[in-house]
Amino acid sequence: MKQQRQRNKLLTPLVVKVLPIMEEEMIDTIYIKMCDCSEIQKQKPDSTYALWEARIPPIGYHLGNVFAYIEPRIIWLPTQSQLQKMVGLHPFRVCGNFYEWLFDSVDDGWHVNHNHQNFTSREQLELAFCMSEKFGKVWTGNKWTTSQC
Which pLDDT band holds residue 120 (cuts at 50, 70, 90)? Predict the structure, then answer.
């Protein structure tokens, strides 16, 4: 009986149900590429199956986690709250540190730091902040590199 349960667990299908695609929702392929790094993927929660939406690339959901399927891999896409937990600070500290990281103080006020102007979504900014705070990495547009600061 125990062997049968273990065998069934191994056979648990990755794709449980395909959901219809939502035309108005776009998948941020840059965010997926940014998440495809060892620092983030090492923190991926265990998941044996997910509900997958018929998209390009397919996106899966399981217990509050989001995944992208880029053949032959499944890439975990952390949510904003998961990224904030990774930073490991009190929520108010996370917000304060995020804005200090995002903006430069200049004589006539605050301006977005020039290093962050190429990000096109809040998810990209949150991930870049997390990688900077936790791992000392910066996004070059193609990969993560160690910060020179």
Answer: confident
Q: Read off the tokens for 41.
A: 């993927």
Find the angle CA(119)-CA(65)-CA(145) to the nearest 5 degrees. Answer: 40
Alpha-carbon span 82 to 84, nearest angstrom: 5
- For the chain, give the mean pLDDT: 75
Place of tokens 């062997």: 3
Domain limits, the chain: 1-77, 79-149
SS (H, E, C) the chain: CHHHHHHHHHCCCCEEEEECCCCCCCCCHHHHHHHCCHHHHCCCCCCCCEEEECCCCCEEEECCEEEEEECCEEEEECCHHHHHHHHCCCHHHHHHHHHHHHEEEECCEEEECHHHCCCCCHHHHHHHHHHHHHHCEEECCCCEEECCC
* pLDDT beyond 90 at 143: yes
Report phi then psi at 84, rounded to 5: -65, -40
Does the pLDDT of residue 5 top 90, yes or no? Answer: no
pLDDT score of 138: 92
Question: Can you give the pTM of this predicted structure?
Answer: 0.69
